[in-house]
Amino acid sequence: MKSIKNILFLIFLSGYIVLVSGFIAGKEHIQKIGAMKVRVTDSTENQFIHTAEIRRFMEQSKFGPFGKGTGTIDLAAIERSLMKQQIISKAEVFITEPGVLHIEISQKTPFVRIFNRYGQGYYLDREGNIIPLSRNYSPLVLVANGYIAEPFTVGQTLNILEVKHDSINRSMHTIYDVYRLAEYITGDKFWNSQIEQIYVNNRYEFELIPRVGSHIIELGRAENIEEKFENLRLLYEEGFNNLGWNQYGKISLKYKNQVVCTKIQ
Prior knowledge:
Strand order of the largest sheet: 6-5-4-7-8-9-10-11-12
Number of strands: 12
Distance between the termini: 108 Å
Structural class: alpha/beta
Number of helices: 6
CATH class of the largest domain: Alpha Beta
Shape: elongated
Strand content: 25-35%
Oligomer: single chain
Largest sheet: 9 strands, mixed
Order of helices and strands: HEHHEEEEEEHHEEEHEE
């Protein structure tokens, strides 16, 4: 008798689940999108993109959601479409009742600003992604300019590290040396506070412009970087603290195990 009751209960429960599922599925098609909420999760750190731009993109694209049934919205397709914008690093799209479409965006974070030899400008993030310049926002990051060339087309390439660059000539390899040098400088708390600009001269050698002092630092080629910066750190901490910052116009680290200082005439 008890087993019959259990069986009947299971049958009733299964029917109820099917009925409720059908009701919910039907409700999804009846329920229409009536509102859209957009949030840029890191808007206090970066301001490359604003909620108004995302709204405009949605309203002008085939993904315009208003009036559509919630069950007809392709959330994954919207996320893929948003991710095609170079500044966006992450996009999450979901629906809540009553008919609200939510879009949450995270931006890529630049760490160096590039001005190449052709007058083109762009940012790079630490993953090697190119971030276009913005008319509305200019973050305070390390700047690199001068005779910088690339083995790719700026505006078409999305990530510089995905371009083969192991066997290219020295001039075309410059952007990768800049990337590596900028990584080192910004990854070190001391140097990140000291160096504000990287300049590449016509011999494809590197010069650094510090925030404090009137001197230029001749780094030479982008090799033995750790050793060169360690020698420079000793000069800063032991030499300049005693002699002052403004006696020298040039500091050269080009030669192995040497720091050559040239006084201002």
